[in-house]
Amino acid sequence: MPMPERCSRFAEYRDKVLELFASKGFGQVGMRELATCLGLAPGSLYHHYPSKQHLLLDLIEELYEELLSTLGRIDQKTSAKRDKLQNLIRAHLNLHQEMPWHFRLAERDSGCLNDEQQARVRQLREQYECKLLLMLGTRARLSEPAQRAAAHAIANLLNSAPSWLAHQALEEHERVEMLENLVGGAIERLLRPTVPRAVALETGLVSVDRARRRCKA
Q1: Alpha-carbon dihedral 206, 210, 211, 213, rounded to 10 degrees
Q2: Among the listed residues 42, 37, 29, the one whose alpha carbon sits nearest the alpha carbon of residue 9
Q3: Helical pair 52-77 and 31-38, crossing angle rounded to 10 deg
Q4: How far apart are CA 136 and CA 75, in angstroms?
Q5: What are the pLDDT digits (tens) for 66-115?
Q6: How far apart are the first and last CA of the chain?
């Protein structure tokens, strides 16, 4: 649903609705409770949203709109691929702090949508993953299915990483640095150009031979 068409009162009370869905579970929240949360009569809420699934889709669309906008800003402002990756990780960590309920709903409750709405979410996710891959590049000689799988894996890493250390007693800068190293290292390894097996074996043998000579010396 385009931004201008969103219920203005919902925009005002969005955080309360998000927290209600995320804390109680989408299936446990009824339209009457949603209307009460928004300060509306149930009939008025139906005027804006035919069902709570439409409201859930609206929230998930909002998340992907922000993710896609974030990718666009990083791509325009950063030229070096390594800098793009670092900025991408930091931007996702910041988004998780700003929109934690959105991420939780998208991950946990997308399956509550009807088939048409789930298709819309898949379309948004594929658009996001495609843009990720275009921005970061990919290994040479990867098949198209392998490229899609790589993009899917990267998206999952970025969207799940902030929860990995959530319960660890770390300073904020320590948590951020650790997550950047973990996620950045995994993505760089995934996207690293493939070295032919013969070259890899030869390089490995040369390294072993050099190590032996150093030990003898």
Answers
A1: 140
A2: 37
A3: 60
A4: 9
A5: 999 999 999 888 878 778 888 999 999 999 989 988 998 898 899 999 99
A6: 71
